[in-house]
Amino acid sequence: MKIKICMMLLGFMLCEGAVAQSQDFVKIGDTEIFDLYLNRGAYEFSALANGKPIFGTVVQYRFKATNKSSFFKNYVLKEDCQRGYGKMRGYDLNDRFSEYLDWVKGSGTVGSDYAEALCRVASWDK
User: Fold this and answer.
1) pTM value surpassing 0.70
2) Relative to the CA of 50, which of 1, 19, 77, 114 has its CA 20 to 30 Å away?
3) CB atoms within 10 A of CB 114
4) Would you list the domain boundaries of the chain?
């Protein structure tokens, strides 16, 4: 399954071909199993407890078979964006850690495409 991420400009607000589910959520990709939406008003710069900078947003996974949704927060580390690989961090909406998602720039995996998009929006991909 490969997710198709459209180019994100101006913090998810101008995305050619994006389909708005509502005012706040913008569809940025899909797989055979789910559609992926980002909340364009919920992205944020923050830091881990050790002070390392992170960037992320609220995401919605809408499952095609059931039309049910799950919501999470996903973040990338600045240092991971700059080196081109790392672990995207997943949290529930109460900020409880849920999982790591490995990613490598250019690999074409779902997690990698999504992490690369976050790195671009944060301008940490250089």
Assistant:
1) yes
2) 114
3) 22
4) 19-122
